[in-house]
Amino acid sequence: MLSTMQDVPLTVSRILRHGSTVHGKSRITTWTGEGEPHRRTFAEVGERAAQLAHALRDELGVARDDRVATLMWNNAEHVEAYFAIPAMGSILHTLNLRLPAEQLVWIVHHAADRVVLVNGSLLPLLAPLLPKMETVEHVVVVGPGDTSLLAGCRPTVHEYEALIAGRPTTYDWPELDERTAAAMCYTSGTTGDPKGVVYSHRSIYLHSMQVNMGESMGLTDADTTLPVVPMFHVNAWGLPHAVFMTGVNLLMPDRFLQPAPLAEMIEAERPTHSAAVPTIWQGLLAELAAKPRDISSLKHVTIGGSACPPSLMRTFEEQHGVKVVHAWGMTETSPLGTVAHPPAGLSDEELWSYRISQGRFPASVEARLIGPDGSEMPWDGESAGELEVRGPWIAGAYYGGADADPIRPEDKFSPDGWLRTGDVGVITPDGYLTLTDRAKDVIKSGGEWISSVELENHLMGHPAVAEAAVVAVPDERWGERPLATVVLKEDAGEVSYEELRDFLAGKVARWQVPERWTLIPAVPKTSVGKFDKKVLRAQYAKGELDVTKL
Amino acid sequence: MLSTMQDVPLTVSRILRHGSTVHGKSRITTWTGEGEPHRRTFAEVGERAAQLAHALRDELGVARDDRVATLMWNNAEHVEAYFAIPAMGSILHTLNLRLPAEQLVWIVHHAADRVVLVNGSLLPLLAPLLPKMETVEHVVVVGPGDTSLLAGCRPTVHEYEALIAGRPTTYDWPELDERTAAAMCYTSGTTGDPKGVVYSHRSIYLHSMQVNMGESMGLTDADTTLPVVPMFHVNAWGLPHAVFMTGVNLLMPDRFLQPAPLAEMIEAERPTHSAAVPTIWQGLLAELAAKPRDISSLKHVTIGGSACPPSLMRTFEEQHGVKVVHAWGMTETSPLGTVAHPPAGLSDEELWSYRISQGRFPASVEARLIGPDGSEMPWDGESAGELEVRGPWIAGAYYGGADADPIRPEDKFSPDGWLRTGDVGVITPDGYLTLTDRAKDVIKSGGEWISSVELENHLMGHPAVAEAAVVAVPDERWGERPLATVVLKEDAGEVSYEELRDFLAGKVARWQVPERWTLIPAVPKTSVGKFDKKVLRAQYAKGELDVTKL
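Structure tokens for the assembled complex are given below, as produced in the milestone run.
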């Protein structure tokens, strides 16, 4: 039996219409680095989004489903693009300006972007790549920059303000099917080509509601949020769309993501909330220690992107009265997957075990753990498995390219359509996730898993050890076994493998203790400073490591 | 272009699964009137909901789309029915036990309810009606009651606990289309037959998310809410479904809706939030004045159902530290239509003008005002029109009956599908609604509207006037004009119509002042004590009133 409810699609234009009317007085403040920040109301953003849509359609010929890319920082114009492009039925494609040049070119080609909106300050990055970006017909330069860099380039060059000026400030947004593509974002996997995730109007709408729920961020128009997380990282965690739903004011850092200007803008503009990766906050704390600032307006900050050290959370809270809330997600999860508000009624100590977890799943994100033998593991806080998730804002495939079917790599999507996150962890009976390893770093030994991260953490607790990386190596009897690669401190003196082995034996199950050991001068690192274990595995395979078997 | 997001339906079973696992420790406490309240965890409710579904399907033969009615108070078993019936693909039909007997019989017949779940305490109400409820095959008695009243009745009688005992505590909930009917509720209009609103899984899910948003109630598992609003009134304003999404604890009053037990349960169980109509709070304040209780746990209460006197809001806040938040909705709007959290950054005086409004629309509820000439009125806080709303949890039709098409009366739904609320009001530029009249009580004079409520309020401010009702009467020149019917105070002495007219003339526009006046001994009232203006209009039409035209 069908209900008698109205059939109203959940679309980005609905959020825009609401935000720019009911919350028309709410503001986006963009930091300019010098002088007064730039301020614009939601009502103005709504009018300018309409002007942008008219310009894109009438002047640049952008049609439904056309991809329009942005290579921009966090600022009011980027928010205008966030709304105008999906609302008119086209697809917003945010480009990650930190990707290697070849990947950027590959991604623009794969998405077949027809237009690129670029901040003037990023022209030195874009200009040399434009000759290779063959699908791009128009470049729209937003804000000041050296446009001489574009001299002689093939695409037509426009200046944003001149392009939108004088156009109608309202737009008859089309009524779209809520499952229509609205925005896309490519993941930068360490192996293979980048993969495109295509968000729908529905997924953005529902995700925005979740961000605004009390159990997530729960902000209102009495709040101002500072998204330090870039708008080219999973839609700035959904904040730009979410704030238009509830009138939360935005403080935008533009390109000023360094500790000193962040401290300055927090003191001056008094945001109540912020969102960023841990390294940003670590830098901010150091800055504040060197040059104290009043950041008392901040009530809580959401931290995600990588695990946050508990010491950072405690320092922030004790020294600055800022509550740090852990969250987990990925490009494929829009990104809100978990938020670590602890359950009510716990002692301080119990609270911390929840707060340092990745957090609790909301109702729209179903989760399961798949163990080493492919069976589902219980939520007992102890049984580890690869996390798989399902929900209306979770990817079920990757973009296959124009006119191509979506692709569903087996290692990323289960046969029944759940996303394989590639993360290994445990879940408590009350739904709190703790991630321990990347699935590819787990050692599969005799049908059981050994956590390389756990072994590394224990080893690095030994007074003589500077760094340690544990990788899986093939083993005839057990399938895989751990190889411990250890960097000793300069002043460590003599330390035997047996001593390190016995040190571990007191901390993990006997069968998890590595037999294979090697000393190395340094752990190879990726460009972002993470352990590059595939280098170690390759060195082992080629026999380049001097391994002792105990 | 389609997105690559998973296509996951928004269903009641998803809310149930989440609430009974991730929030399995949250609790429903049901007041029993004597001794310890009854306590049950969300995990237990989830298990018992599964048992109920097994019993309904296997024992009572309830199939997909079958209607299962409840005639119950607010208690844990009613919550079990709230989840089990929709989640299994059947339709929950809550019966309003305050309706006249004939209407109850009519509604059960129209919905073709096959089963009625009834609280034992309500058997005296149900038993005499059962012979006329021909579609009902099974009666399930929940809790203690005089079952001898059912002796010899046609339907099979079951006892709830015996019926569900021993059945499996899990159920393989079907994956339903989110637009499937989940629950229904009939409105009790003052004219014509009651009209059935059929909620979908989608509408319940989205409404639950909205209830949990910071701008609405924004509760978390640190909260306990006391829904005094009955579960047979628009799903207790959506609270039972919403709390399972976020783990908010429920304090259920069962049938103890009187001021004394409410005060007692608030003191004993310390809820942080409550929801009820104004008369309940008025009674509670009087009770607390007579017998003080500690209600300091209450942080805020949501008031709706009818306009709340500002004095009540102030008293609650000043004497008890409880913030009263106004909200507006109706059966057709699920019901969340507006919530009156004021905008940020206002002075205390400005705040109150927002707080006494009906409130602000959320992003999912679009609104427009249709003026006397059928055109859309501006949101300027002054131009009045009939409120029409659109959104994913707003009705677009009424239930037509089994195998019948839904019905869309012209006076309730616009040609483009919006709900005509029948309420007249104004909307501020920032989206706050103030209702002034029912559309049928507005006087349409020369293409403009005159608010009967405003005239009445002014007249009742005159020292000699006890009551005043203003109704529209036909007028050759203006279409309609106001007729003022006035009840003088016993000690009023001589008061002329001219004096009353001049009194009004200083307060409203000249053209709004009535020419027609009559003194009556009392204003006719409906069964719930409201002015019954249709009686006055009929008396005027029949020439039964002694009208003076000035």
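The radius of gyration of chain B is 25 Å. Chain B has a mean pLDDT of 94. Further analysis is deferred to the final report.
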